[in-house]
């Protein structure tokens, strides 16, 4: 996986959310969380696995809504931040954090109602194997996001610490076929890349978002989207 050592550094984990989801990044956080909730549907009493859970943004949110959640990540430093967040939210009884490899999930087949992976596939060196494991342990929903090859994301991708794996829609459809997953819904969003939103204040980000959504709604505008959310089932 790209950036494996980078994500395991204590200083990266401690500053992760403040750097990415403050200011204009709050808008991204809200959009991503809504995409997850839309895909899972009724959350209460669902068994959910998040691979590459990081600092627990989604795991804690789901636990607060009554899901029984497992968050798995390879970074002990990220998991430490997630456990602290869970304690602060008082949801430890609904949430378990585990250190592990997303390519070899330690769960039986059809163990979860839903398996999600957010901000992960752009780092994946073998996406087919990860998607196959997600499919194996989920009896219903598989949900993940990708950064898109033919989009504004490609303009600044070279400047990122590790770069990103960018996907064409054709490539994602091929991966779904190989994993025996049926596409339920695909949503394409953010003509302006995430990095722009993180660089500006929250108030200005809202104005950019209005323009962004307007561009995305014009014929052909959706093809410029830098992010795609993929809702699938086995």
From TrEMBL:
Domain of life: Archaea
Methyltransferase listed as a keyword: yes
Sequence ranges assigned to domain Methyltransferase in this UniProt record: 48-139
Keywords assigned: Methyltransferase, Transferase
CDD domains recorded: AdoMet_MTases (cd02440)
Pfam families: Methyltransf_25 (PF13649)
Gene3D superfamilies reported in the protein's UniProt record: Vaccinia Virus protein VP39 (3.40.50.150)
Protein's name according to its UniProt entry: Methyltransferase type 11
GO MF term (any one): methyltransferase activity
Annotated GO biological process: methylation
Transmembrane listed as a keyword: no
């Amino acid at each position: 996986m790209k950036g494996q050592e980078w994500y395991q550094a204590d200083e990266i984990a401690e500053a992760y959310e403040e750097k990415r989801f403050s200011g204009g990044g709050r808008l991204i956080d809200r959009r991503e969380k809504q995409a997850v909730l839309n895909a899972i549907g009724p959350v209460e009493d669902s068994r959910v696995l998040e691979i590459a859970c990081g600092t627990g943004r989604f795991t804690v949110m789901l636990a607060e809504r009554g899901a029984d959640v497992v968050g798995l990540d390879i970074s002990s430093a990220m998991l430490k931040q997630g456990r602290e967040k869970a304690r602060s939210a008082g949801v430890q009884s609904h949430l378990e954090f585990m250190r592990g490899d997303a390519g070899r999930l330690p769960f039986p087949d059809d163990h979860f109602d839903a398996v999600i992976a957010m901000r992960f596939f752009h780092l994946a060196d073998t996406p087919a194997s990860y998607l196959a494991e997600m499919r194996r342990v989920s009896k219903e929903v598989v949900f993940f996001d990708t950064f898109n090859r033919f989009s504004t994301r490609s303009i600044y991708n070279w400047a990122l610490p590790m770069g990103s794996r960018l996907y064409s829609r054709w490539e994602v459809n091929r991966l779904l076929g190989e994993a025996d997953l049926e596409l339920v819904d695909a949503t394409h969003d953010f003509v302006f890349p995430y990095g722009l939103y993180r660089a500006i204040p929250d108030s200005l980000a809202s104005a950019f978002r209005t323009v962004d959504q307007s561009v995305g709604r014009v014929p052909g505008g959706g093809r410029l989207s830098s992010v795609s959310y993929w809702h699938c089932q086995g």
